[in-house]
Design goal:
By secondary structure, the protein is mainly beta. Bound molecules: CU-O-CU linkage and copper (II) ion.
Length: 490
């Protein structure tokens, strides 16, 4: 199968995947980390918090004086950070000022399918789309990005992405660092390519899709972050289109993980590294001493590379990247101790499993032998029932698996219980080669027989190639009906 993959990936295009690369020790941390602005909002008459996003083309100077053509929301690259509270109703007025259609998907959000911003909620040029929904999920670090079928990799790589932070009362009561841009820092990591004079250029392409040889954080090349608090919360988002990372600190201190995709873990976990595949998030706490400097790196040791598979270099394996230098001030504001208990996570009861489904990720970018068809609903799920999804990466290369609308739990990986860092709420998982993942999911509240949600590989080129399927959430006994499309029930 591996031989077949390589032929498939490289036949006819004459390019090879990038080999092991490194920027360790080569990055001049000479630019202050850009902090995406907080999105402004207004409260309308019925109490809805209203945001506005405008997808537009522009130019960005990644290198002073050198303009690159980029896309962004309300600016030329990336987008503002949206912040909302559990219990609020929100609306986002999204305008498309590009000259091609796009969509905006709220990754990790529990919301009605029509508001999801997947491939079916297309926004034509010079038109607007105004989804609204109630925020009813835990404090968490979510994000938004386009999801136009076949074009997602391109639209995200050009710069369309932003963070969506949710807060709740419980999280506030913990006293975690929470001052945006001061001790609560968005860290949006992307790989990119630059010419010698600093103009952004297209990335090398391999089986994983586009892989850049340099990292940018919040759109900043060579970023440093000055902090004046002894405890800092970093909200790390892998917004890269294909590359996975294993984040570590340059001096080998542990990485203190407090939250994953869907919210806080039960307790902080000290790790050697935090691995994030595209789309995944991690909240990490960093305690600094006066005047010190420490570098966030992504380090694929051979041990980690072995986990990501025999063709790990295609996914950026065997590499060490410098990501961000943190510089502590000489005088630091003290921070309280981190609570030993952060959250209560109630396990699903396996006795409640109503349906088991299998998803086989196969070569040629298919799931269960089918490529994505916008006119076909692949799975019909009954609302408010517990589902077990067995996801098997049947290939010899890494993929990822993301499910819309829901935060799920991992019940087992290759037959064993997940490690603590994967035991919380997740919406996207890295799938190691030839490994089976058992997920428990419960789709609640919203049904829509003719508008599907998506599940897919979050390596965006794979998604664009069709490694994606559609599921509808329906009332008991209801069947899904794809309006205007052919419909094939499994
Ligand atoms: Cu982050 Cu279906 O996407
Ligand atoms: Cu994939």
């Amino acid at each position: 199968a591996a031989g077949g993959l390589v032929t498939l990936a490289f036949a006819g295009c004459g390019i090879v995947g990038p080999g092991p690369i490194s920027t360790e020790g080569e990055v001049d941390f000479d630019t202050p980390l850009a902090i995406p602005p907080l999105a402004e909002s207004t409260i309308d008459a019925d109490g809805t918090r209203v945001f506005a996003l405008d997808a537009r083309a522009g130019t960005t100077e990644f290198e002073p004086g050198v303009a690159s053509d980029t896309w962004g929301f309300n600016g030329s690259y990336l987008g503002p950070t949206l912040v909302a509270d559990r219990g609020e109703r929100v609306r986002v007025d999204v305008t498309n000022s590009l000259d091609e259609p796009t969509t905006v998907h709220w990754h990790g959000m529990h919301l009605p399918a029509e508001m999801d911003g997947g491939p079916h909620q297309m926004i034509d040029p010079d038109t607007a789309w105004s989804p609204e929904w109630d925020i009813d999920q835990q404090a968490s670090t979510l994000w938004y990005h386009p999801h136009l079928h076949g074009e997602t990799e391109d639209h995200v790589a050009r710069g369309l992405a932003g963070m969506f932070m949710l807060h709740d009362e419980h999280e506030r009561s913990l006293g975690l660092p929470g001052e945006y841009g001061v001790d609560d820092i968005p860290v949006i990591v992307q790989d990119s390519g630059f010419s010698a004079d600093g103009e952004q250029e297209s990335k090398q392409r391999g089986y994983a899709g586009g892989l850049g040889d340099e990292l940018i954080v919040n759109g900043t090349r060579g970023p440093f972050l000055e902090v004046s608090d002894e405890l800092v919360r970093l909200r790390m988002l892998n917004a890269s289109t294909a590359r996975s990372y294993a984040f570590t600190w340059s001096d080998g201190r542990p990485v203190d993980l407090i939250a994953t995709d869907g919210g806080l873990l039960e307790a902080p976990v000290s790790l050697d590294h935090v691995r994030l595949s595209p789309g995944e998030r991690a909240e990490v706490l960093l305690r600094v001493t006066p005047g010190e400097r420490v570098v966030l790196q992504s380090k694929m040791t051979s041990e980690i590379a072995a986990l990501v598979g025999p063709v790990a270099d295609m996914n950026g394996g065997n590499d060490t990247f410098d990501v961000l230098e943190v510089r502590a001030a000489e005088t630091l504001d003290p921070a309280p101790a981190v609570p030993a208990r952060l959250n209560t996570i109630t396990d699903f009861d396996p006795a409640d499993i109503a349906t088991t489904r299998r998803f086989e990720l196969s070569d040629s970018f298919e799931i269960n032998g089918d490529a994505m068809d916008m006119g076909r609903i692949d799975e019909t799920v009954t609302v408010d029932t517990l589902e077990r999804w067995v996801v098997e990466n049947a290939t010899q290369v890494p993929h990822s698996f993301h499910v819309h609308d829901v935060q799920f739990r991992i019940a087992s990986i290759g037959g064993t219980a997940p490690p603590p860092e994967l035991a919380g709420w997740k919406d996207t998982i890295f799938t190691e080669p030839e490994t089976e993942y058992e997920l428990l999911l419960r789709f609640e509240d919203y049904t829509d027989a003719d508008t599907p949600y998506m599940y897919h590989c979050h390596l965006l080129w794979h998604e664009d190639q069709g490694m994606m399927g559609q599921f509808a959430v329906v009332e008991p006994g209801q069947s899904a009906t794809m309006t205007g499309g052919t419909h094939d029930e499994h």
